[in-house]
Amino acid sequence: AGAAAEARFISSAKGKGLFATRNIRKGETVFVERPVVSSQFLWNALYNYRACDHCLRALETAEENAQRLLGRSSLVLPHPEQCSIRKDLHQQCPRCQVTYCSAECRQAALEQYHQVLCLGPSRDDPTHPLNKLQEAWRNMHYPPETSSIMLMARMVATIKQAKDKEWWIKAFSQFCSKTANEEEEIVHKLLGDKFKGQLELLRLLFTEALYDEYLSRWFTPEGFRSLFALVGTNGQGIGTSSLSQWVHACDALDLPMLQREELDAFIDQLYKDIEKESGEFLNCEGSGLYVLQSCCNHSCIPNAETSFPENNFLLHLTALEDIEAGEEICISYLDCCQRERSRHSRNKILRENYLFTCSCPKCLAQADDADVTSDEEEEGEGETDDAELEDEMTDV
């Protein structure tokens, strides 16, 4: 998988970048990558978005998924055979009952981190240290979620369980790290105004739940803040959905024209109804740390994009253009709507969330544009919403 691209050091300001090692055609999968560690978001799980506790594969059938998002249990989806969910393969941890999509995922979780994090019979005990930690996190970080304290918990648990602890510490140290000032900014962004007090509370709960002598540095105020910033900067959002899998499968069906039109109209209407009921929260969502993907720098005119077409945590990086050998492969950290805004607005978002000012060709070309902020732009933006929404839905 690594053959088409490799990470290279660019400069101390930019850090690493990902470069094509051969010519890559538009539409080609550059690589498929599994995360070093990943975790579903806590509110997402609480609201019954049922996903495999290890790989985040959606566990509901497409029909159950649509019924829940619509709040309508009578809905029947046509072509149910196009749903890829195999409930007969699902397994639970016999001790704490978290659910996995397969025996393989249950085993992989157990071998990597679940022995340390399994709550056993304390799963619903609010006084258990891990439950206290999760509750505190939920009270600080409301939807839309961008990170999870459990990603950090799984990092610690992974190292606790590992025979070769140094290998894992090295794996985690590959992710871009920041200076103390930058870390502070990222943590501030994730936790808001009360961040110092909140961070300290989280650190104490994190320590109570997970302390390990070998990793003692991660539990100090500085070490904990660094860990937090690492996850805040490098975490890649993961979205899975059995409904969107079903839609993709239906799109590929070879149907007579009339049936095709009927099915397309049904799907369009379904998404409009779901949007009224559930808004933008369509997917099982979480985040993960991906070694190669985290080396991809941002461009406002990206030549590649990430997606999760296998309905689990396997990240596919796909070329949006032909990319020549030696060329840098860039993705966009902004969604479609944000990319269409002025350079000033784009850079405001990038500075606040990723602590850099973009100098991609598009930004350089617009360098002389007036500094219009988004409020002034907002008026012209309403009409793109439907199209954007559709993009968001099919991007999974």
β-strand number: 12
Helix content: 40-55%
Number of domains: 2
Residues in β-strands, percent: 5-15%
Q: What is the end-to-end distance?
A: 21 Å
Strand order of the largest sheet: 1-2-12-9
What is the SS-derived class? Answer: alpha+beta
What is the average of the pLDDT values? 89
Largest sheet: 4 strands, mixed
Number of helices: 16
Gross morphology: globular
**What is the H/E string?**
EEEEHHEEHHHHHHHEHHEEEEEHHHHH
- Give unreliable regions as ranges: 376-396
Radius of gyration, CA atoms, in whole angstroms: 22 Å
GO cellular component, one term: cytoplasm
Protein name: Protein-lysine N-trimethyltransferase SMYD5
EC number: 2.1.1.359, 2.1.1.372
Region (Disordered): 370-396
Mind explaining what this structure looks like?
Keywords: Cytoplasm, Metal-binding, Methyltransferase, S-adenosyl-L-methionine, Transferase, Zinc, Zinc-finger. Its EC number is 2.1.1.359, 2.1.1.372. There is one protein chain. Helices cover 44% and strands 13% of the residues. The protein is an alpha+beta fold. The protein has 2 domains: 5-35 and 290-367, Beta Complex (Beta-clip-like); 38-237, no CATH class. It starts with a strand and ends with a helix. The model is unreliable at 376-396 (pLDDT under 50).
